[in-house]
Amino acid sequence: MGIDIRHKNDRKVRRKAPKSQDIYLRLLVKLYRFLARRTNAKFNKIVLKRLFMSKSNRPPLSLSRLVRKMKLKGREDKITVVVGTITDDIRITDIPKLKVCALRLTSGARARILKSGGEIITFDQLALRAPKGQNTVLIQGPRKAREVYRHFGPAPGLPHSHTKPYVRSKGRKFERARGRRKSRGYQK
Length: 188
What we know:
five-stranded parallel sheet; 5 helices
């Protein structure tokens, strides 16, 4: 009598295609699937993987972060590649000349980049210009910026925990007694 094989680890949970039915995204996937297979560049494999990602794993990138990352040494005259959305940021006043490739740009961000003499290209244009990702900088938005991440971690109330509790409202009567004040048991 043989030992039965455990099948609980058979299925690998990772995306092999995007969930979205957007035909233009699907065409980009076709293009980058080809490039990832036929070129030896890691860049194309990364772009393909990011095209599959869910929206929460493709967080928006603000214009100020983009400018800050592109001011680093050795990054001038390179094309910024963002597999996601670039959003406008009113906190930044002067924008340098940028070459940008992104899935989406908000109208404000698009206008400001073009006004400063910059250039915006799409991923199919990028594939013609830099099929192996030459002279490009891949940038992502901050994934942990979502409010939900504040609630993750050791339970709120444990010593040295800075995890945000899920509270109905923030007021005098809500989670303000034991553990929050010396007069009510202890103060964390």
